[in-house]
Design a protein that fits this description.
Number of helices: 11
InterPro entries: 3-OHacyl-CoA_DH (IPR022694), 3-OHacyl-CoA_DH_NAD-bd (IPR006176), 3HC_DH_C (IPR006108), 6-PGluconate_DH-like_C_sf (IPR008927), 6PGD_dom2 (IPR013328), NAD(P)-bd_dom_sf (IPR036291)
Pathway: Lipid metabolism; butanoate metabolism
Largest sheet: 8 strands, mixed
Shape: globular
Strand order of the largest sheet: 3-2-1-4-5-6-7-8
Order of helices and strands: EHEHHEEHEHEEHEHHHHH
Family: Belongs to the 3-hydroxyacyl-CoA dehydrogenase family.
GO molecular function, one term: 3-hydroxybutyryl-CoA dehydrogenase activity
Keywords: Oxidoreductase
Distance between the termini: 40 Å
């Protein structure tokens, strides 16, 4: 089935904008905490919101990641202490009201993300940029919940955020040039590289990556080759740093399943459909590294 991508009003982003001084982030999981760490290390004040029952875990995740960076010689103790001092953890969404940019980084669930985006639209200033870290949901689907939807943009980071330098900036139909300019400036402040993409499920990276990963799962499911040989084949033969099944475990099978469903819903192509084996593994709690077992044991 063919897919038509509507052209935004403008595809050109202005060169620069006023630097972000305060960023608000909703969701303190691996992605949200990683974005917070990158921003705080870049000298930006961070307000990180998480549900009360998960705040302690978010704090541990954030501080442990900084400590690992110090031990590896990537940062020093002064960097770590300054990043911690710049970061405020809260369970109150209203505490994000003063941020010039807010980013939702909650799980890949369209209903949940839409609810968060709508709430943020009623809290932050009218000229504040509202971004989603979704990895697959079209931004227009989320922007409809926000008044002044021209200030909504996709900012798709990659895991682990402190290490991965790419950010996809996603321009929806109504996204303004000023919003895109702000997004580019923020990414530059973080010391990361941006690519700009039009608004469709999967954007650039996951649109290309998911068929490859699902092909590997099907190959293993059909007993065409062992998991080790599939992964070694792509590492040694294609120069990939990690094999596809190990990468599935790293990302998380539940996350991949949600991305697959989003892509399949939009494009109706079999290459995006999650294989039956993946569904059974998720039902059994074998989500990958996060659960201690996926295609491999950890």
């Amino acid at each position: 089935m063919s897919s038509t991508v509507l052209e935004p009003a403008s595809a050109e982003a202005p060169a620069s904008s006023k630097p972000i001084t305060t960023v608000g982030i909703v969701g303190g999981g691996f992605m949200g905490a990683g974005i917070a760490e990158s921003a705080a290390l870049a000298g930006i004040d961070v307000v990180l919101r998480e549900l009360p029952e998960f705040l302690d875990g978010t704090r541990r995740r954030f501080e442990s990641s900084l400590e690992r960076a110090v031990k590896r010689g990537k940062r020093d103790g002064a960097d770590r202490d300054a990043a911690v001092a710049r970061t405020t953890l809260t369970s109150d969404l209203q505490d994000l009201a003063g941020a010039e940019l807010v980013i939702e980084a909650v799980p890949e669930n369209a209903e949940l993300k839409t609810t968060i985006m709508k709430a943020l639209g009623g809290i932050v200033a009218d000229d504040a940029v509202i971004a989603s870290n979704t990895s697959s949901i079209p931004i227009a689907q989320l922007a409809g919940a926000v008044h002044n939807s021209d200030r909504v943009v996709g900012l798709h980071f990659f895991s682990p955020v402190p290490v991965m330098n790419l950010v996809e900036i996603v321009r929806a139909l109504d996204t303004s040039d000023v919003t895109i300019e702000t997004a580019h400036t923020f990414v530059t402040q973080l010391g990361k590289q941006a690519i700009e993409t039009k608004d469709r499920s999967g954007f650039v990276v996951n649109f290309l990556l998911i068929p490859y990963l699902m092909a590997a799962v099907r190959m293993y499911e059909e007993d065409f080759a062992s998991r080790e040989d599939i992964d070694e084949g792509m590492k040694l033969g294609a120069g990939h740093p990690m094999g596809p099944l190990a990468l599935c475990d790293f990302i998380g099978l539940d996350v991949l399943h949600a991305v697959c469903n989003s892509l399949y819903e939009e494009f109706k192509r079999d290459e995006y459909a999650p294989p039956p084996l993946m569904k059974r593994m998720i039902a059994a709690g074998r989500l990958g590294r996060k659960s201690g077992r996926g295609f491999y044991e950890y």
